[in-house]
Amino acid sequence: MRILTLNTWHNNGPWLQRRDALMQGIVQHSPDILLFQELFDVDWSKELQARLGYAYLIANECAHSGLVVLSKLPAHHNEIYRMNTRSPFENYWRYALGPSSAPARSR
């Protein structure tokens, strides 16, 4: 199994050039699971999903967490967790993406 994690730095700086470089790297490494931090453009993650053939997309559009997972393998349970504290230097919440505490359903 190949896993790749990337921080996109949101869309700051030369985003279009960086986006093209990210796409080339993803194609070159062909990960089974692709994890993003600071990817707030959910439309681009949906475009990646379609162009690269990932069957599963995990993103919480409501929380604007910037956390996105693209996977060729099914994710049975996941949950976005909001941190209870916030930095005095930031005006937004921090999040974590992880397995849900909900019990697995039998199939």
Please describe what this structure looks like.
It is built from two helices and six strands; from the N terminus they run βαβαββββ. With about 110 residues, it is of the alpha+beta class. It has a single domain (about 5-100), classed as Endonuclease/exonuclease/phosphatase (Deoxyribonuclease I, Chain A). Strands 1-2-4-3 form a four-stranded mixed sheet, covered by helices on one side. A two-stranded antiparallel sheet has the order 5-6. A hairpin with an 8-residue loop joins β3 (about 55-60) and β4 (about 70). The longest helix is centred in the N-terminal third of the chain and has 15 residues, at about 15-30. The protein is globular and about 40 Å long.
Q: Which helices and strands occur, and which strands form pairs?
A:
Blueprint: E1 3-7, H1 15-29, E2 33-37, H2 42-52, E3 56-59, E4 68-71, E5 79-82, E6 95-98
Parallel strand pairs: 1-2
Antiparallel strand pairs: 2-4, 3-4, 5-6
Short key terms for the protein model shown above:
107 residues, alpha+beta, Deoxyribonuclease I, Chain A, 4-stranded mixed beta sheet, two-stranded antiparallel sheet, 2 helices, 24% helix, globular, disordered C terminus
